[in-house]
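In response to reviewer comment 3 from the previous cycle, which asked for concrete evidence that the modeling workflow produces usable outputs, we include below a single protein chain processed end to end. The sequence was submitted unchanged, and the resulting structure tokens are shown without manual editing.
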Amino acid sequence: MILVRANLIGWESTPRMNRFLACFSALLLTCCAATAQSPSSNLLPPAAVPATAPAPAAVTTTQPGDIAQFQKIEDSWSDAVNRHDQYGLELVLSPLFVDVSAGGDVTTRNQQVVQAISGDDKTLYLTQKVVTVRMLGDIAVANGTYVLHHRVNSSQVDDKGVFTHVFERVHNRWVCINSQRTLLRQDTNAKQKKQSTAAEPFHIPFFSRNDKDSEQPQ
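The workflow returned the following structure tokens.
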């Protein structure tokens, strides 16, 4: 009786085992198929990194808006020198300002202010004209011409030259941090005056033919 019952239990459990194996096999095949349809991310080629386009090189420009903006600053600078105005100079020149004169003298803003307010030459008169401006973000480089009328011993002379002024934008205001001036020789040889400037990177029209067109004190 016991043997017959055991055989019946084994016979009844056989279909359950078969169903379990069938379900397990089906699940295993489904997982294999899903894996085969989804390629591994390791097999994908790395995404191409777009090359960063190089920033365009800054060029010297003659945009009317830029020139007008910095001409106004240069006019304020000249006016402060002509009026011996300490406050006016301090508004234009940065505390880090360094000036290299045409004669090679290096001075700071404080020294420039002292020279302006203590100068005894009442005929001194400065004019500056912006010709080109190069914008470099918060830095700007202005190139132009200048005429400095002053007294040498008992004679009145006009020093004519070109300048390079480097400005920095601080609190939405441009202040000069560096100045470089170069004095031009007054050449009386007409043939040398007609020498071509085609090889120069850019040409600054230094001065007009009428040297008296700028206002000077009487």
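The CA atoms of residues 100 and 106 lie 5 Å apart. We consider this sufficient to address the reviewer's concern, and the full set will be provided in the supplementary archive.
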